[in-house]
Design goal:
By secondary structure, this protein is of the alpha+beta class. It has helices at about 40-45, 45-50, 75-80, and strands at about 10-15, 20-25, 30-35, 55, 60-65, 70. It contains 3 helices and 6 strands; from the N terminus they run βββααβββα.
């Protein structure tokens, strides 16, 4: 019996935000969409601050330098909101 292993590539291909969601496209074609409210720093950032992101962690992370926010594709795939969201900076 042949069992085909799925090839996954959880590295970041593209990132965007709309008014309510953080949307991350992965290299393997999957798209992750999570509520922006899960990440208070991103939610309180301006659209231009959200648009300025960098690939980090060998492709498995996202860094927003203007707001000093870092997220991993692993955490996004697990559906992990920011810990201690209430303790992050306030506007």
């Amino acid at each position: 019996m042949n069992i085909s292993a799925r090839i996954t590539d959880e590295r970041v291909a593209d990132v965007r935000c709309d008014d309510d969601s953080l949307i991350v496209d992965l290299m393997d074609g999957r798209t992750i969409s999570v509520p922006l409210a899960w990440y208070p720093r991103l939610a309180s950032a301006t659209p231009s601050e959200r648009a300025l992101w960098e690939v980090a962690g060998a492709g498995y992370g996202i860094h927003w330098p203007a707001i000093d926010e870092d997220l991993s594709t692993e955490g996004l795939l697990r559906g992990a909101p920011a810990p201690f969201a209430g303790l992050l900076r306030s506007s």
